[in-house]
Design brief:
Layout (H helix, E strand, L loop, with lengths): L2 H26 L5 H19 L4 H5 L4 H8 L6 H4 L13 H10 L19 E3 L14 E4 L8 E4 L1 E3 L9 H14 L3 E2 L7 H5 L4 E5 L15 H8 L4 E7 L11 E2 L6 H7 L7 E2 L10 H14 L5 E5 L4 H14 L5 E5 L10 H6 L4 H14 L7 E5 L5 H9 L4 E4 L1 H6 L22 H4 L4 H25 L13 E6 L2 E4 H4 L7 H4 L3 H9 L13
Parallel strand pairs: 4-13, 5-6, 6-7, 7-10, 10-11, 11-12, 12-13
Antiparallel strand pairs: 1-14, 2-3, 8-9, 14-15
Length: 537
């Protein structure tokens, strides 16, 4: 038994040893030892129950000891500042976000007393404009048709879906729970760039297959894209959309990393790489290197998949890059079906701190740039926009829809719904709740059926909350939202609506006479290269 395993079960083991010893002392010494024996045997019974109960992964992996964590959490709000308010590397995190996710996933009461805890007078504070004539929300979830004029098999996307997380980064049980939750709830599950594993396919949930620069699951022995492998896998009925990953919000500009300790035979097989070796994705794709090349690759994947919706995901770098892509669309007449905008505030299991904190465009600005370039080039009517980056509540969904998205994806919130406690051990293979580990002794703690229902419930309740907010604004559906519905405090005396702070371009304006603030970036952008000097204005 390793020291880590002993540490996990030490509370249970000590209780068992103590109970046996106290019982022996009762028989050979004094009946007073019952005072110790009875509570120790009760602790042993608690430990046995912890090992077999399906609801708490912490207790399955840390019988008896795990109760101390829940005891500390019960002291909130005294300890809320420490346990709830901050996440990775001390980045500010919404005070109620984590509690809200857990409560929705578990189906417990989400009401709270005393009103807002946000400082509505602080610069940057945002709020939605409600109506004096609110409406009742619809009974069914709103759907977004993803699939432009060149798509043969359009897909009805939910307002909230599972964002990209690979098998390997997550355990088999976590993937199974996410996919089963997606199947039950009728929403999509992005595979991440780690390949199309059997765990993604086993439960039958709808999939967005992400193709990264490593081409995992569709690569040659030399790491290049393999069209035949791709076509065979993309024919799976569960694969509904294809997404080309250009960059990830938490670490734009570098490839993903899979530590050797997590590269099992099974993961290596799904990815088509050697087992037990560190796996690093290249920073850039080998299948293309220009905006036109990107569009041609999108067209190739769409054709090979039988006409399924195909697009790409990126963390926005500059207006120039997006304008170059739009010029490539106009030059080739190849129209991607969707673009997923990943904000720099998005999460990851492992990335250099400098990239996490200092590279990439935040989601609000990224969405605004993508919205304006598509509208200015008269392409938005054909292309749906997804948004990912700390989406965890109904208000997050509504805010991102107002800013230009058609639907949203969540990774961190879905991980919490499946049991993640943000222990920040994702890269060590020692996740205490079995979510981000390939250690079968740890991943057994995650009971698929129980966590799948939590994922379904979280998505359903969060989308329902978004629809309630939209109805409270006096609207019939998301299609009626506009930038005037979101207000932001600029300073102590100034409040503006989002359309005032981020005015949208007029449809087709870049094609006729680009506004002065866009002219330099428009002139610098080229459909034949991503190497143009970035121009903000």
């Amino acid at each position: 038994m390793s020291m880590r395993t002993f540490a996990r079960f030490s509370g249970f083991a000590l209780a068992l040893v103590g109970a046996v010893a106290a019982t022996a002392l009762v028989t050979i010494s004094s009946w007073w030892w019952l005072v110790a024996a009875v509570p120790l045997w009760l602790a042993v019974l608690v430990g046995v129950y912890d090992l077999v109960q399906p609801h708490h992964s912490v207790l399955r992996n840390y019988p008896v000891l795990g109760h101390f964590r829940f005891a500390l959490e019960s002291l909130r709000p005294e300890l809320q500042q420490y346990f709830i308010e901050r996440d990775t590397h001390g980045t500010p995190f919404d005070r109620n976000a984590r509690s809200l996710i857990y409560e929705r996933a578990k189906g417990v009461n989400q009401e709270q007393p005393f009103g807002t805890e946000l400082d509505v007078y602080a610069p940057g504070a945002e709020w939605l404009i409600h109506s004096a004539a609110p409406k009742s929300p619809p009974a069914d979830q709103h759907r977004v048709t993803v699939g432009g004029p060149q798509c043969i098999q359009p897909y009805e996307m939910a307002l909230l879906n599972v964002s990209a997380m690979s098998f390997g980064a997550l355990s088999a049980n976590a993937i199974l729970a996410l996919n089963e939750g997606a199947r039950r709830g009728g929403f999509a599950h992005d595979t991440g760039e780690g390949g199309l594993s059997r765990y993604h396919l086993e439960k039958g949930g709808d999939l967005v297959w992400e193709i990264g620069s490593g081409y995992f699951g569709c690569r040659t022995a030399h790491g290049d894209f393999d069209p035949k492998q791709f076509a065979d896998a993309a024919a799976e009925p569960a694969v509904k959309c294809i997404s080309v990953k250009l960059s990830q919000g938490a670490k734009p500009g570098i490839g993903g990393v899979m530590p050797a300790a997590k590269m099992t035979e099974e993961i290596a097989s799904a990815r088509g790489v050697p087992a037990h070796e560190k796996c690093v994705s290249p920073p850039a794709h080998s299948a293309f290197s220009t905006p036109i090349g990107l569009l041609e690759f999108v067209a190739e994947l769409r054709d090979l998949s039988g006409g399924k919706p195909t697009g790409f995901k990126l963390c926005v770098g500059s207006r120039t890059d997006m304008l170059a892509i739009c010029k490539a669309i106009l030059a080739t007449s190849i129209i991607p079906d969707f673009i997923i905008v990943d904000g720099s505030e998005g999460g990851t299991g492992a990335a250099p701190l400098e990239f996490e904190d200092h590279v990439g465009t935040p989601l609000t600005e990224g969405l605004t740039i993508v919205r304006d370039t598509l509208v200015g080039c008269d392409l938005k009517r054909h292309i749906k926009v997804g948004a990912s980056g700390k989406v965890s509540s109904g208000s997050d969904i509504v805010k991102r829809l107002i800013q230009g998205a058609d639907y949203t994806n969540a990774a961190r919130a879905m991980m919490m719904a499946v049991g993640c406690i943000q222990a920040q051990r994702c890269h060590t293979n020692t996740c205490p709740v079995g979510v981000a580990t390939q250690d079968p002794k740890r991943s057994r703690a995650l009971v698929v059926e129980d966590k799948a229902e939590r994922v379904r419930r979280f998505q359903h309740e969060t989308v329902h909350s978004a629809q309630r907010l939209i109805a409270a604004m006096g609207l019939d559906g998301p299609e009626q939202l506009h930038a005037g519905h979101l207000m932001e405090r600029v300073d102590a005396h100034t409040v503006h609506s989002f359309d005032k702070l981020h005015p949208s371009l007029a449809t087709g304006s870049l094609l006729s006479e680009p506004p002065e603030s866009w002219a330099a970036a428009w002139n610098a952008a080229s459909a034949s290269t991503f190497d143009a000097v970035p121009v903000r204005a």
